[in-house]
Design brief:
alpha/beta, 8 helices, binds adenosine-5'-diphosphate, binds cytidine-5'-monophosphate, binds magnesium ion, cytoplasm, kinase, ATP binding, EC 2.7.4.14, Adenylat/UMP-CMP_kin
C-alpha cells in the first residue's frame, strides 16, 4: 500500500511568525513549507484566474476563501512536491513531509480537509504559535511599512483579520486540542527563542539521526 505524506498544520494569529518559523523547520527537518496564504496570493496573481477577484476581496477583508479553492491548491502543491523530490532521488523525503501554514482557518476549511484529504495524508499534530494581538498588529504593520506589498498589512485589514482569527480560527485550534493534537508554543518572544521551543517538539517526532 502506498504511504501517505505526513502533515503538520501551523496555526496562530496574523503575524505570530508562522512563515518565519516554518522556513526554519523546513530547512532543519526536511519538510516542504506550504503557506495557504502564499498559494492563494499566487493564484490571485495568475493571469486569467477565475478566482483572482474573489481571493483578493477575501484577503483585503480578512475573510476566508471557500475551502474547495484552498484545499485544491494545497493538494496540487503536495502532489507536485512529492513528484519533484522523487525525481531528485530524495529518499529521505519518503512519501512527503508538509508544513501546512495558515490552514485550517475555519470550520469550512476543517471540514473540507476531512472530506478531500483525510484519506490522503496523516496529520501528525497542530503547531500553535500563541501571540497577543497587540504583538500581531505591530509586526504586521511593521511588515507593511517595510514594503511587504501585501494589501492586508494595514490597520483596517488587520482589525478584520484579528476578528476572523478570534471568532473562527481559535475555535478550530480548540477543537483540535480536544483530540490532543495541539502543541502550543509562546510566540511573542524573539525568533530564536520561539524556534528553540519548536525544535524540542520536532525532535520528538522527527529525530535527526
Ligand atoms: P505570519 O506568517 O504568522 O503572518 P510572519 O512569519 O510573516 O508571520 O511574521 C510577521 C512579521 O513579524 C515578519 O515581518 C517577521 O519578520 C516578523 N517576526 C516573525 N517572528 C518574529 C519574532 N519572534 N519577533 C519579532 N518579529 C518577528
Ligand atoms: O496566512 P496569511 O496571513 O498569508 O493569509 C492571508 C489571507 O489569505 C487571510 O487573511 C485570508 O484572507 C486568506 N486565507 C484564506 N484561507 C486560508 C489561508 C489564508 O482565505 N486557509
Ligand atoms: Mg504568513
Amino acid at each position: 500500500m502506498e504511504q501517505k505524506p505526513d502533515v503538520v498544520f501551523v496555526l496562530g494569529g496574523p503575524g505570530s511568525g508562522k512563515g518565519t518559523q516554518c522556513r526554519r523547520i523546513a530547512n532543519d527537518y526536511n519538510f516542504v513549507h506550504l503557506s495557504a496564504g502564499d498559494l492563494l496570493r499566487e493564484e490571485r496573481n495568475t493571469p486569467n484566474s477565475q478566482y483572482g477577484e474573489l481571493i483578493e476581496n477575501h484577503i483585503r477583508n480578512g475573510t476566508i476563501v471557500p475551502v474547495a479553492i484552498t484545499c485544491s491548491l494545497l493538494e496540487n502543491a503536495m502532489n507536485k512536491n512529492v513528484a519533484k523530490r522523487a525525481a531528485e532521488g530524495d529518499t529521505n523525503f519518503g512519501s512527503g513531509r508538509f508544513l501546512i501554514d495558515g490552514f485550517p482557518r475555519n470550520m469550512d476549511n476543517y471540514e473540507g480537509w476531512q472530506k478531500q484529504m483525510a484519506d490522503k495524508a496523516n496529520v501528525r499534530f497542530v503547531l500553535y504559535l500563541e501571540c497577543p494581538q497587540e504583538v500581531c498588529m505591530e509586526r504586521c504593520l511593521k511588515r507593511g511599512q517595510a514594503g511587504s506589498g501585501r494589501s492586508d498589512d494595514n490597520e483596517e485589514s488587520m482589525r478584520k483579520r484579528l476578528v476572523t482569527y478570534f471568532t473562527q480560527t481559535l475555535p478550530i485550534i480548540e477543537l483540535c486540542d480536544k483530540s490532543n493534537l495541539v502543541k502550543k508554543v509562546p510566540a511573542a518572544c524573539c525568533e530564536e527563542e520561539v524556534y528553540n521551543a519548536i525544535k524540542t517538539i520536532f525532535e520528538e517526532y522527527y529525530p535527526k539521526v
